[in-house]
TrEMBL record:
Record organism: Fodinibacter luteus
Superkingdom: Bacteria
Coiled coil regions in record: none
SUPFAM superfamilies: P-loop containing nucleoside triphosphate hydrolases (SSF52540)
Source lineage: Bacteria, Bacillati, Actinomycetota, Actinomycetes, Micrococcales
Protein name: Secretion/DNA translocation related CpaE-like protein
Length: 249
């Protein structure tokens, strides 16, 4: 089952770059400027997105409550039962979840959410089984990468997988997704960024500099995208692209 409307997917090319934080900030900023948003955690072997959002104490459904879902659910029934804050809902795991969550349940829940008015943001690992489904919706895919040699090698592999339709073995058949690059790390020169873009072959969206406020706010349990920090500025840049695409369609 395919998604029926475009989504925004945030893919960390390497671990520890803050893809989950950015995905939550994008959802929060989307909700602040338009319809509600849902941020879904697809790193199902670990979970923890609700902890990053600081909403783990709130009641509501988690992925492990939805493992029996088969077929389309009414989005207006699903959205209100997800924990969230100020119009941004979170679909995560409850203290981690077994990776044997049925793929069909994941597909049908995502399709249900994408069929409603809320905008869907995915914290999407590059190895996720849901990747072809996401690409089939013509999604905006934000690849977050570091600038060290190993990080750029990881980004190269991830971008190649995305442009290949998300399927091993070079199987195509999906419309091209809109892949944009967010670089992460210490402030750097335009020349370095130009070299990275030329090598990876995708458009550069934003550079996310190190910001000491971000880990501080995380320890305080603030929902990403609330404070006026570097992550919020990056999220606003992503939202501007989403709005531009919506205006052009």
């Amino acid at each position: 089952m395919s998604l029926t409307s475009p989504v925004i997917a945030v893919v960390g090319a390497s671990g520890g770059l803050g893809a989950s934080t950015l995905a939550l900030a994008v959802g929060r900023r989307l909700a602040a400027t338009g319809p509600p948003a849902v941020v879904a955690d697809l790193d199902l072997a670990r979970g923890g997105l609700e902890v990053t959002a600081g909403v783990e104490h709130l009641p509501g459904r988690r992925w492990d409550d939805l493992r029996q879902v088969r077929g389309r659910l009414p989005p207006d029934a699903l959205l209100p039962v997800l924990p969230g804050e100020d119009g941004c809902h979170v679909l995560s795991a409850r203290g981690g979840i077994s990776p044997d969550l049925p793929d069909v349940a994941v597909r049908d829940v995502l399709a249900s959410l994408a069929s409603g008015p809320a905008r869907l943001v995915l914290d999407l690992p590059a190895w996720s089984p849901a990747l072809p489904q996401v690409l089939s919706a013509g999604s905006l895919v934000v690849v977050l990468t570091g600038l060290r040699t190993r990080a750029l090698a990881d980004a190269d592999a991830v971008v190649a997988r995305l442009l290949d339709g998300g399927v091993d073995g070079g199987v195509h058949g999906y419309p091209p997704c809109d892949v944009r690059l967010v670089t992460r790390g210490a402030r750097t020169s335009a020349e370095v960024l130009d070299d990275v873009v030329a090598h990876l072959g995708v458009a550069h969206l934003h550079h996310l500099p190190d910001d000491p406020h971000v880990p501080r706010d995380a320890e305080r349990g603030l929902f990403p995208g609330v404070a006026r920090d570097a992550v919020r500025r990056c999220a606003d840049r992503v939202v501007s692209v989403v709005d531009d695409v919506a205006d052009a369609s």
